[in-house]
Design goal:
alpha+beta, Immunoglobulin-like, four-stranded antiparallel sheet, 42 helices, disordered N terminus, coiled coil, Munc13_1, C2_dom, exocytosis, cytoplasm
Amino acid sequence: MITLPQQESKFSAALSKRFENEAVYSFLENFEAVAQKHERRRQKIKKNEDIQNEKLPTEYTNIFTVKPQKISPKEYELLYIETLYTIKHKIGSTTSKYIQGENDLYAYAQEAFELSNEDHHRLFDKANEEKPPILILNVEIIEAKDLEAKDANGFSDPYCMLGIVPEIRHSIILQQPNSGGVSSDEEGANANSVHDNKLGFMKRLKSFRKSTTRRSQGREKTNSTISSSSQSSASLKDKLPAKYIQATDVKTATLNPIWMEKFRFRIESEKTETFHLDIWDHDDEFSVFEAATKLNQVQGFKGLNRYFKQIAQSARTNYLTEGSHVDDFLGSVNLKISEIPSTGIDKWFSLEGRNESSKVRGQIHIRANLTTREDRGISEEDNWTDIKEHVELLEIFIDHELKLFKGETTQWAGELSRGAETILHQHAIQGGITDIQHSMCRWIAYSQKYSEHILTYKLLLSITEQLEQTWKSKSLSRDESDMLREAFTVFINDCFKQLSRIRDLFPAVNKTSMERLEQLLTILAKLHGMEVFRYCCPFQNSLQYELTSMIKTSTIEWFDRVATQITKPRLRSDEDTLRNAIELVYLMVGDAHSSIKYYNPIFESTVKMSFYNITFKKIDEKLMDIVIKALEEELGDQIHQCPSKFLEVKEPDSVDVLAFASGAEQISLCLFELYLSLHELSKYKIYVNETDRANLKISQYHGYFGAAVKKWLSVARNKILHRIERSVENDKYETVLTATSNVKFTASSLDVSNCFSQIAQFWRRLAWPDMISSITYLIKITEDMANAARLYATLVEAKLNTRKICEANDVACFTQEVSLAVNDIERIRESFKTLPIELSYDKLLVAAEKFHPIAVVGEYRKKIETTVACCSQDIIERIYQILSKLVTMMEVELKQYTFHITEAPELVSLQDTIHPLITFIDVRILSSKDFLIRQNFTRLLELVWAIVMDQLISEIEQTLKPRTNSSYARLMKALDSLVDYFHADEQNLAKEVLKTEKYKLLRKLIKYYSMDTYSLIKLYYQEKLQEQERSSIINQSSTSSDLGKLYGRAYYHLKEETLYIEIISCKNLKPCDSNGLSDPYVEIQLCPKFLYPHIEKRQTSIVKKSLNPSFNEKFEFRLTEKECTVSGGFIHLIVMDHDLMWSNDFEGEAFLEISKLPGIPNDSINDSRLLDELKKFELTLTHPKAIRSRIVDILEARASDRAAMEFVRQRREAESQ
């Protein structure tokens, strides 16, 4: 077992060796170096946006290495055949957006499918073997407006008759007969050629018309005609489909009807057939419904012409019978099938009349488009195969366009060439693909390409918006919804896969990556907010829920990965473990900064969620587990103890330094760097939700460093103490004194001042977050540095005391050495005095008052300020003590010259009396000004001034022969001249500094000695009154005083020339008897006696055994107005304890100035007031010997003055009691 002396010896040896072989002064500097390193890393993290990169990271391109599964070769050929088939059977007129030439389309398709000429011709022959498709015209009658009013009510009851005018295969001409102008193919023809027959037919066919007469005769005629037509048509072989003519509903009483009805017509010949539409005003309930029924009985062209004949005959009924009613013609529209563009028609058509003279008006809104239907024996509505083919075709064309694109794929806007657009357009209209189906196909195809190529998400966002715009509720079949749901799922999973590697694929310092991340989240938010998405994916969780789960999982995986990389297996020491933890924390600081500055704003603006809040909570838990484990390996279970507990355990100073002397300093620096990194990371917790913030482990990071901080502060203290010892020891006064320049400090003061600055800097770097324990640490630092400052002053003085003065030269050198010593000490005092300010103690205490009791914080403040004040005062006293060595060397001369001032004959001028003293000070004292700093030079002058004051007081008090009043006046002028000299520019002592207590006493003594006896006695009572008032102020906060209090009233009645005094009571008197009580009474007398010689002393009755007696006795004194107003008159109240056996005991005394009593002339109180109405006075009792009176001493020296002797006798008797 090592004994304490052995331990100290071992400590000293280890410490000395360390100081000799290593940089002993580097301890605090090393901590500052660690702090600066931390600051550089912190600034680097915050300035990383300066190294932005416009290109996507390499990691991003690696995720597209896996290609999706393609269709089989057979399916590929079938798709190409379908493409050729689509091109071969193009429908509709071609607009400028598309390519008209089939050869160009064949060439593009072959290039896109990457087929050889041989394969192309082979598959082209197969496409030619396919049956041609059936051409279909889809028509939607939307509405009409501004129609002509035919009914008496100012409206019409419009309906539409629409159909396809077929190709004229035989020479059929409708002529106008002579009787009524009815045209019929049975009544003859008048044409020269087939071409003329066609033109004539188109020219005359301005309307479909049905007879709607209400007359029974008309109905019977019509029925007969239709029956005859039906019988004659039975012999025809060719049947005309009923679809050639169809009708809308009747819209009653309107000129702006809305139908919104759809019709389909089969087109036999796109080039020759015409779409025709009539609008009629319905006037018979039979016309629309029966006419439509009769259309089913019409067969063949001859039957159709016969039906048109009946329609024409009905036109003549308007003038056959006045009461007849028929449908009125409102207008017609003709549209050639060959003129309908492939994109369809959606426009308003102006209505035409039956002939040029017909007056019709209004417009009708028609929507029409062409499509095909292949004769496969399936429903016309079933285009599932076409939809799948369309998606596959889109994907092939997208791949082809990307190969042709010259720039980066991220710059591709998604535009396809005209050839691709033409083929896709024809495939869509031939397959009957609706707008929503087309939008769906585009979204599926393009979204699939995002897993194969790096494309801008702006492209898919626009396609998504198109899908949203075309979507209508339940507009997709179940198969289509499943197909779209699968595409949604694949795309979202791919997005989530990228987001799970957000830090790798979307680095925060990459501007392009941040833009891409924002686009990705935007489209995810867009998808989850769309009705079509919710329809297809009804059971999909919310985007916020899915993202939260993904971010949590991916954050943990990322953290585990980087933690494993940093702490990968190798030869590890305690230092390695701490450094790994440090690197990991700094990495998390960088991640937190990136999350706050880059990731979080994007997530909040796009998906309305906090990315940082999720990630930081997960990182906090994982990271702190690693940090705690690393700290446990180094510090053990101490990290789980309260930091304030460590300050309660005091270890020998040698233990701390010895531990560091044996090689633990590097570990301490690692701990400090780890603390700084955790402190930096903890700053980011303010961005976490307030509800989650309190549960973060990082909030209590400082609690694990209590033992480390205790060690740091202890070692820093001991290092500084030893540094002070070595610095003072190494100070070479000889070197400084021989310097050419005027040096006022040695190196040690600069070194120790730097220590204080470094400890303050260390504390600021530490930024301990817990207020109470932080105050405790601050108090410890202040106390340690106070001891260090005292040690420095002690060592400097001790070194100075070893100097011996032998010769005059030694005196000059000693003066300079003293100057250097006190300057160094003052510098250390100033450095220490500002230390709490540098430690920001006031700011810390003000902040603590918000969370802790003010009384507790006040005690801390008092302790810190008291420590600073006491240390500063101790050092100042030591400086005065050292400076007094210089003053002592000249004290004899100072006293001699001061004596000359007091004893010089009156014939000698005032200037001549003080000149020797001033000359001596100029020679001996002012020469030190070059070596002393201002504060110490002032202190030196203060010491000289004090010696001068002491000597003057001594000379005045010890004089044996009386002085004249003129000598005292001369002495007062000399004192004023000395004040002016010491206050002059060279000395520049403030007059407040010069007017010390000794100076005031000197002036008072000069004044007293120059006064007569009666004036001194008056002044004595005036001073006693002032002493009483001061005692009253001191005891104002207490109900009791040392000697008690006296209560009463006093009043002067001017007319009666009577002074009334009432003694009411006393409180808290001092017990004078053995029973712990007193027998008090009060004596009243007017003083001084020479002013009131005719007034006898009066007294109250005695109150037995009481310390709070009540007297309530009144006394009257006959005084003239002049006697009351004279200056210096007092009422002297003496409280005595009555004693039968011995002399009475003195309890205390009090004074009242008569000239200031109520009732004295010029007083504001009315003369008529009674004594009982006056406010009672409260006087604090005093004792004559409480404060020495110089007046009594002066009067005592006047032995020949009987008045002085009598007064002194009375006062000495009172003082002795």
